[in-house]
């Protein structure tokens, strides 16, 4: 092979090598550009997701503290809110001690003389502990009246002489099941423990019911604060009791007993 032919062959080889190098460089650049675009797209998507989220809602309490709240529909309530409300109401309703907290001396107790309950004819049929009457403010009006009459007929009058005491012992509350917009059903399994003369338990009465609870308009917190600052007149005290019981924006509209077979 002549020197001229060798030179041509070497030039051709060098040209191919340069083309391969440029090709690889272009591929690397394109791959880098693609990765950059993917990264920027992911970053942009994350920014849009953050921007689309509702900002945290702050509510300032009357004492000046601010808390985060979750916005929900006006008829919706959280499961925990419903269960806390029911536990508080039923504990007040079925814990009978013959005493009541002294509103003027926190931590002290007074003898509870009870609240008289009248029948549909206006005649007195008995009385219920003050705590029962207060708890009933968390019930729908017509149901409340019928419920108080039932309690007045069933409660031992020895409760008011402190010879009998009753303790409410919840076993379980089921998860609230929505039966219609703004209305839920909760199954309660519990026991009522009866004590005689402050001694050991004399009787255990199962209390198992289906509770129907619904959302209502909550009381105006400004008015509640105004009532707290007013003199302790009977009207102001009653209105404040109603507001405190109903601050969960819930009320019980039905309680249906069920048999043990229904537990299966």
SSE layout:
Layout: H1 3-52, E1 57-60, E2 66-69, H2 79-93, E3 99-101, E4 109-111, E5 115-118, E6 124-128, H3 130-135, H4 141-154, E7 164-173, E8 177-180, E9 183-196, E10 201-215, H5 221-229, H6 234-245, E11 250-257
Antiparallel strand pairs: 1-2, 3-4, 5-6, 7-9, 8-9, 9-10, 10-11
Please identify the oligomeric state.
single chain
Structural class from helices and strands? alpha+beta
Q: How many strand units?
A: 11
Q: Roughly what fraction of the amino acids lie in strands?
A: 25-35%
Count of structural domains: 2
CATH superfamily of the largest domain: VirB8 protein
What is the CATH first-level class name of the largest domain? Alpha Beta
What's the total helix number?
6
- Ranges where pLDDT stays below 50 over 5 or more residues in a row are none
- The CATH architecture term of the largest domain is Roll
Shape: elongated
Largest sheet: 5 strands, antiparallel
Overall pLDDT score: 79
Helix content: 40-55%
Order of helices and strands: HEEHEEEEHHEEEEHHE
Rg, nearest Å: 36 Å
What's the N-to-C terminus distance?
101 Å
The fold-level CATH name of the largest domain is: Nuclear Transport Factor 2, Chain: A
């Amino acid at each position: 092979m002549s020197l001229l032919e060798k030179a041509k062959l070497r030039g051709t080889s060098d040209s191919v090598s340069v083309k391969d190098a440029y090709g690889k460089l272009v591929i690397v650049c394109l791959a880098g550009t693609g990765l950059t675009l993917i990264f920027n797209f992911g970053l942009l998507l994350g920014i849009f997701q953050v921007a689309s989220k509702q900002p945290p809602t702050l509510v300032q309490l009357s004492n000046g503290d601010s808390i985060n709240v979750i916005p929900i529909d006006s008829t919706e309530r959280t499961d925990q809110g419903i269960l806390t409300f029911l536990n508080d109401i039923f504990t007040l309703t079925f814990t009978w001690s013959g005493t009541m907290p002294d509103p003027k001396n926190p931590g002290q107790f007074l003898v509870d003389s009870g609240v008289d309950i009248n029948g549909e004819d206006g005649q007195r049929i008995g009385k219920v502990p003050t705590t029962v009457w207060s708890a009933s403010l968390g019930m729908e009006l017509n149901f409340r009246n019928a419920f108080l009459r039932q309690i007045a007929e069933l409660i031992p009058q020895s409760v008011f002489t402190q010879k009998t005491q009753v303790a409410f012992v919840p076993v379980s509350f089921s998860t609230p099941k929505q039966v219609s917009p703004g209305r839920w059903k909760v199954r309660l399994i519990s026991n009522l423990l009866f004590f005689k003369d402050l001694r050991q338990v004399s009787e255990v009465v199962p209390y198992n019911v289906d509770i129907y609870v619904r959302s209502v308009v909550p009381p105006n917190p400004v008015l509640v604060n105004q009532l707290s600052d007013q003199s302790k007149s009977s009207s102001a005290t009653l209105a404040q009791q109603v507001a405190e019981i109903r601050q969960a924006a819930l009320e019980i509209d039905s309680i249906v007993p069920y048999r043990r077979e229904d537990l299966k």
